[in-house]
Amino acid sequence: xxxxxxxxxxxxxxxxxxxxxxxxxxxxxxxxxxxxxxxxxxxxxxxxxxxxxxxxxxxxxxxxxxxxxxxxxxxxxxxxxxxxxxxxxxxxxxxxxxxxxxxxxxxxxxxxxxxxxxxxxxxxxxxxxxxxxxxxxxxxxxxxxxxxxxxxxxxxxxxxxxxxxxxxxxxxxxxxxxxxxxxxxxxxxxxxxxxxxxxxxxxxxxxxxxxxxxxxxxxxxxxxxxxxxxxxxxxxxxxxxxxxxxxxxxxxxxxxxxxxxxxxxxxxxxxxxxxxxxxxxxxxxxxxxxxxxxxxxxxxxxxxxxxxxxxxxxxxxxxxxxxxxxxxxxxxxxxxxxxxxxxxxxxxxxxxxxxxxxxxxxxxxxxxxxxxxxxxxxxxxxxxxxxxxxxxxxxxxxxxxxxxxxxxxx
Amino acid sequence: xxxxxxxxxxxxxxxxxxxxxxxxxxxxxxxxxxxxxxxxxxxxxxxxxxxxxxxxxxxxxxxxxxxxxxxxxxxxxxxxxxxxxxxxxxxxxxxxxxxxxxxxxxxxxxxxxxxxxxxxxxxxxxxxxxxxxxxxxxxxxxxxxxxxxxxxxxxxxxxxxxxxxxxxxxxxxxxxxxxxxxxxxxxxxxxxxxxxxxxxxxxxxxxxxxxxxxxxxxxxxxxxxxxxxxxxxxxxxxxxxxxxxxxxxxxxxxxxxxxxxxxxxxxxxxxxxxxxxxxxxxxxxxxxxxxxxxxxxxxxxxxxxxxxxxxxxxxxxxxxxxxxxxxxxxxxxxxxxxxxxxxxxxxxxxxxxxxxxxxxxxxxxxxxxxxxxxxxxxxxxxxxxxxxxxxxxxxxxxxxxxxxxxxxxx
Lengths: 410, 410
Hints:
Two copies of one chain form a homodimer.
Chain A: E1 3-8, H1 16-30, E2 35-40, H2 46-57, H3 63-87, E3 92-95, E4 102-104, E5 113-116, H4 119-126, E6 130-134, E7 137-139, E8 145-147, H5 152-164, E9 168-173, E10 194-196, H6 197-205, H7 213-222, E11 226-230, E12 238-241, H8 245-253, E13 258-274, H9 279-289, E14 294-300, E15 307-315, H10 319-332, E16 337-350, H11 360-370, E17 377-381, E18 384-390, H12 394-404
């Protein structure tokens, strides 16, 4: 008897036929003795349709009202999926984020899950029901609805799996698992059977779109075993879990386990930041307060002794918020101006084996040089090296890195 | 400084342009000093689209899941309307039924409002916000979402107006007010400037679709002044309020104030009901438990000394529930069988003046006889006479009654 949390994305529930297919899969997983909690996203492009409608009414809608609007997407999916499961003879109940006890921090559109009060979910499971929970949303103690931001359904699923102490959290997607790089760019990409939380986290942050970084973080924190697999077949996908001995052995031979691309990058440069204590702190605190995730940060060499240029990257999705924040903070800290530049991609190589293998970054730069590729920014972690390059060069560079680090399939 | 509750139906918020028009109207009503609470229904045919999707997944979906699904329609409208109002420079906030404190009795799809806890709405009004509330829905103490059934947004608006002690509850519709009969059937129909709760209630029950009967009942109970008016112009509509002296004077000359048609009638006949104490009670209790409103009831003359045939009418919308209920209760009470017959219309004449004017029913039957119209069932109240007749005869009969009772416009 196992407790399984399953998560299906928006494309898996885009129409009645697909919802029926998901229902079948869920009922199969439940079988005669398993408990199943299913987390779903909004149907297909519901979210985009609603956002478009909102734009027609208000160029800058309040985030709270966007949350109110967006949350309806998942609420529709859960009700429909519950009905489809019931039609297959299995009892089911749909729960909104609030009803499932997903307590969030009250921040609209980019809320964090503070805690999950599982008693309602457990009660329904005890009654033999399949529990269908709205992903991407939660609420605060006043009954206000918050959304977790795009892709937040992965986080909902992992958080529920952690709170319920589930045996596994199955994330269903349209690919067979996590690949060494995007198979659409590099046909020789291979599926990774097992990957550690840290590597998966770097892969996710680096732009491998299969899992949301925050969901991996959470999984690592609570030791939730994630199984990333296809909703179209029954193949084994990729298991994300704590690094085991076998993996460590494997990594000795495999320095780099994956190559990732993030093509949704906005480069920001703030000019003439006073070289005074606290300037950088004020700048990045303001960005953090606006819930903008800053990725690569580079303080370029002194222009004068008193002033520096500061460059960093953010997600293109945050463009509006970045402008609003910088318009305010740039004059406050006494910097002169700022620019936003698009058209870059961030290419990353990831691998836990890097720690013990010096020269990996150098090898990467060499590959980029061979491709005549100009590097705009560099950032590194213990198990990752990322380079910001022209978007036009990205595909060729990724294929070359994939080959150079021995990842190509036979 | 007035407190105004406004209600806009689904066709008024069917697309972005119409939502903007409603926002403009709301902002105008608020002006510089009025407090406004707006109740809205789901956009256009959202409800039908969602119900259709549900049917594709499950022929007999659980009412609870239908509530979960349906409630999203209003939640979308309120968020969008709040955004549109904000775009016009006026602060606004959207609240779901639950957030607005609309407590319901936990019955899915046909819930009743038990009470309204106004503190959140009042708090937001005090902050100078226009409060946009989801009609048609409420919730129970466990956070379960209930819907009030079709047309329930009128009831939401009146209940809020009562709870907030509003000066007026404006119900916006696509006609100019309440007419002596349906102007599409009888072009000579006139707008009624003022009508009493009782007459409006009988009109509404008799099929005049402008207001939901329950909303009128509630308005009468709490003395809420209703203003039924057009969303397309600024004409005065129809005021529904307690009968005043002037009206009483007027009624002496106007015996009948309106003629109504309900063309959504299903006639049910239960055969050979045992003539034992409690048979009728068991039958109608079972129907009431299933939340089926029974309208006209006729116990036709004894077939034998021990058994009677029992006929009654219900709304065609309740057909499925009626079948489910009768399949169970008819054998239980020892009746032999039942039939459902469609194709009838209920024509009613309404007027508070009837009480003091004998012979009104007789005059109505005479008009029907002149039209060669066969009467299937008759029911009367102090201020209403209703006849069930063939649907094909209804329009001619309504026009004839409108003329016979002196309602035709000059």
